[in-house]
Amino acid sequence: MTERNRCANCNSPRAANPCPRCGTPTELAHHSWEEPQLPPIDLIRKLAFEVGYAIGEHGSKERDLDVIAAPWVDTAVTSPQLLTHLANGLDARIVEVEDKPLGRTAATLLMRGWYRPLDISVCPMIESPTPTAQKE
After folding, report:
1. Cα separations (Å) of 24 from 14, 15, 71, 75, 114?
2. Do residue 52 and residue 26 come from a single domain?
3. DSSP state of 15
C-alpha cells in the first residue's frame, strides 16, 4: 500500500505539504486507510445521456467528483428531472441544491456506500436560436 498524505482540515488527500487549498500541514494517512472511490463517471455519463445531457469533468478529483451537465438535445429534461434520474440510477440522495450564476443549478449527490460526493453543475436550457435570413 502506498503512503498518502491527507489534510485533516479539508478531509482530502493531498500531494503537497502544506495543503495547497487551506495551508494546513498534511499528515500521513494511517497505513490501513483506504481512500473512498470516486463516483463512476461512465455510469453518470450514460444516465445523463438517457435524458439528453452531456457530462464534462472538472476539478482536482481529490475531495469529490465535479461535473458539468449541459443539455445536448432539444428534448433534454429539466434540471430537477436530471438530478432525480441521476439519483435513482446511482442509488444516491440529493443533499444540497442551489442556484448559481448564469442560470446554473448546482447539486451534491451522495451515493450509497463508501464514495466521495458527486458535485454537479447543470447548465440551463435555452431556446434554440432561430436562423436569420442570409444577407444578400
Report:
1. 11, 13, 39, 47, 25
2. no
3. S
- Judged by DSSP in three states, 121 sits in strand
Amino acid letter, 53: Y
68 and 123 Cβ atoms separated by less than 8 Å:
yes
Q: What is the total count of domains within the chain?
A: 2
Grid cell, residue 118, equals 458527486
Give me the count of residues in the chain: 136
Give me the CATH number covering residue 77. 3.30.460.10
Angstrom distances, CA of residue 70 to CA of 47, 55, 66, 119: 13, 7, 13, 14
Query: What is this structure's pTM?
Result: 0.78
C-alpha cell at 32: 490501513
Do 64 and 80 share a structural domain? yes
pLDDT in tens, 83-97: 999 999 999 999 999
Amino acid identity, position 102:
L
